[in-house]
Design brief:
CATH superfamily: Alpha/Beta hydrolase fold, catalytic domain
Radius of gyration: 16 Å
Strand order of the largest sheet: 2-1-3-4-9-10
CATH architecture: 3-Layer(aba) Sandwich
Largest sheet: 6 strands, parallel
Distance between the termini: 13 Å
Number of helices: 9
Helix content: 25-40%
Oligomer: single chain
């Protein structure tokens, strides 16, 4: 039996992992899919003060208060920032980190640093026009159940350096079916190349950036395979 903790990306919530979680549970595993403060069903908790530190603490507290050990901690997209921070704080609770087309910051980097000044500037502009300066609405605004992304979460840097965290096994999965003009294509390609050079176990899958809803069986099968390593 493996304990999976699945962390969502920007604009999403724990709901986005529901299908994958059911399949993992059907195989006898324990699954937690926390929703980060200000997202999903916790959208009412959004405020200008909520950022990356709060989101890291959201997940750290799940591991602590549920007394989880030997966790396979997995994230997509922005969630990579979060699980990197969690590993810095509670490395002794984590068996493996799995990044699914996710951000991997180096010491002192923010999500904004990873996407670059053009994309970050666009997000700041959208927040100023439509989100009172601190919220970035999803485009289109009525897409599914997606909630606003909090600008501070993209601006906050993450500091790393815990030697115990460096010893955690890390796996990176690059999704290769994104459009060439999708800005995430370049971000993820560069990230994958960087972590592969650092010695991570890396692989590619023919998914778009967000396959958790339309390909839950494939994603669950991937996590079952990787979680058993």
């Amino acid at each position: 039996m493996t304990t999976y903790v699945l962390v969502h990306g920007g604009w999403d919530g724990g709901w986005s992992w529901a299908g994958v979680a059911r399949l993992l549970q059907a195989n006898g595993h324990v699954v937690f899919r926390p929703t980060l403060t200000g997202s999903g069903e916790r959208v009412h908790q959004a405020s200008p003060e909520i950022g990356l530190d709060t989101h890291v603490l959201d997940v750290v507290n799940v591991l602590r208060y549920e007394e989880l050990e030997e966790v396979v901690l997995c994230a997509g997209s922005y969630g990579g920032m979060v699980i990197t921070g969690v590993a810095e704080q509670v490395p002794e609770r984590i068996k493996q980190l799995i990044y699914l087309d996710a951000f991997v910051p180096e010491d002192g980097q923010s999500a904004g640093d990873l996407v670059g000044p053009d994309v970050m500037g666009f997000m700041e502009q959208i927040a100023a026009q439509y989100g009172e300066g601190w919220r970035v609405p999803h485009d289109p605004p009525d897409a599914d159940r997606r909630t606003d992304f909090l600008l501070k979460a993209a601006q906050d840097p993450l500091h790393t350096g815990n030697p115990k965290a460096k010893r955690i096994k890390r796996t990176y999965v690059q999704f290769t079916d994104k459009a060439d003009d999708d800005f995430m294509t370049t971000v993820i390609k560069d990230t994958a190349a960087r972590v592969k050079k650092a010695g991570w176990y890396c692989l590619e899958m023919p998914f778009e950036h967000w396959p958790f809803l339309n390909k839950p069986q494939e994603v669950a099968a991937l996590l079952l395979e990787l979680g058993g390593h």
